[in-house]
């Protein structure tokens, strides 16, 4: 499901498509949408499959492509090439898939403290590297729970993000109201680490994914993914532009919404 808002005219007006991270939904963009609308842009905030108010259950989403289907369908249906895709956290991988499939429709892609894969390596490398750099499984998970699921790919697990993890790793510099909202609305999410799309080293090509303008937004106070890790992903994709937001935690749209919107509006003006 999605929430589509606003309209725009003029060559500088863009259509922003906002893609949430694991366990989250379109609701997490509530501070960003009205600012972009007020600037005259069109905005679509998406719920990926089994996220937000999407009616699916996590165990009924059988592949990463199925999970990303709401985004892929929205981009396919777009009637212009003015799309600015904005992916947060794990949502960066769905954005990358849409860029590969529809490069001609995307004016720019923004990775906000997001998983940003690169040409020539499988998309799961970003998650694998994050896990390698994290000292222990306990540090990675804190009070998150592994939820057993079974789908067409067999038995697996989804992650149910814990309230302590949200408070200490995700929303530690965000208003208390945003943390409370997240605690009420997050749903279990599947990272699809063993999915064939996630493992395909030939999936992302220089001619498609590599041809789209990329901007990485570094959240400098991110407690979930370090600045070093964020810059490691940037280094894998030469030519990626970088914007920094001081004091932004992982939920950059919650902790620094004005600064984040300023970055998005700047990108819309220049792409």
TrEMBL record:
This is AB hydrolase-1 domain-containing protein. One of its GO terms (molecular function) is methyl jasmonate esterase activity. Pfam families: Abhydrolase_6. GO terms for biological process: jasmonic acid metabolic process; salicylic acid metabolic process. It comes from the Eukaryota. Residues 16-262 form the AB hydrolase-1 domain. InterPro entries: AB_hydrolase_1 (IPR000073), AB_hydrolase_fold (IPR029058), MES/HNL (IPR045889). PANTHER family: ESTERASE PIR7B, METHYLESTERASE FAMILY MEMBER. The gene is LOC100844552.
């Amino acid at each position: 499901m999605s929430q589509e808002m606003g309209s725009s005219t003029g060559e500088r007006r863009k259509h922003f498509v906002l893609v949430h991270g694991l366990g989250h939904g379109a609701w997490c963009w509530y501070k960003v949408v009205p600012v972009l609308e007020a600037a005259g842009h069109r905005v679509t905030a998406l719920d990926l499959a089994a996220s937000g108010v999407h009616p699916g259950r996590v165990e009924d989403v059988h592949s990463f492509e199925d999970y990303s289907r709401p985004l892929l369908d929205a981009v396919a249906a777009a009637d212009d090439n003015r799309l600015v895709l904005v992916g947060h956290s794990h949502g960066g991988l769905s954005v990358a898939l849409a860029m590969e499939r529809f490069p001609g429709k995307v004016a720019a892609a923004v990775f906000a403290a997001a998983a940003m894969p690169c040409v020539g390596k499988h998309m799961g490398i970003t998650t694998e590297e994050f896990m390698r750099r994290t000292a222990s499984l306990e540090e990675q998970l804190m009070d998150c729970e592994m939820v057993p699921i079974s789908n067409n790919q067999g038995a697996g697990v989804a992650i149910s993000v814990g309230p302590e993890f949200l408070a200490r790793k995700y929303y530690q510099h965000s208003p208390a109201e945003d943390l409370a909202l997240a605690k009420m609305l997050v749903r279990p999410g599947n990272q699809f680490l063993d999915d064939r799309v996630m493992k395909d080293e030939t999936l992302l090509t220089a001619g498609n994914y590599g041809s789209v303008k990329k901007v990485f937004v570094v959240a400098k106070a991110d407690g979930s993914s370090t600045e070093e890790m964020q810059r490691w992903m940037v280094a894998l994709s030469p030519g990626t532009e970088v914007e920094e937001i001081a004091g932004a935690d992982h939920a950059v749209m919650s902790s620094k919404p004005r600064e984040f919107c300023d970055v998005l509006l700047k990108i819309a003006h220049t792409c």
